[in-house]
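Predict structure. Chain length: 162.
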Amino acid sequence: MKHTILMNVRNHAGVMAHVVGLFARRGYNIDSIAVGTRENNLDSVITIIIDDQGNDKVIRQIDKQLRKLVDVINIRDFPYNESVNRELALILVRFKPEELGLVMEIVNVFGANVEDMTENTLLIDISSVSRKVRALINTLSTKFEILEMARTGEIALPYQNI
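Prediction complete.
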């Protein structure tokens, strides 16, 4: 089962490297990681998604190790299914002019947006759960040529904050 870890950390160079290094040294795999500054620009929030393999001991061990890092201000962890998670993807797709209707239909079905367009390319953005982002990418790749793509890691907040 997946688990979400939210960390408030001091915003300066090397903090993320220390966090990722801790996971690497302990042999824990990170499924997703995203970092963004807070409103004060002095702190950042690191969102990490891991597969805890159904083992609470793994989560407790990770939590203990992260709390030892000097730049960690606080940590919250919770099961993945107890949070609202989102991922962003930008996808540049090539299509034939006669396929514009089809590609636009796919974009609309997935609730994505067109950010830019030429006569044979669309720059599409989607912000959604990872499953939906993957489904859009799979659908587009079977019908069109994906020229370029960029994806973020997931960000999350627990339900109790809503």
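Summary: The helical segments are 15-26, 56-67, 100-109, 130-143.
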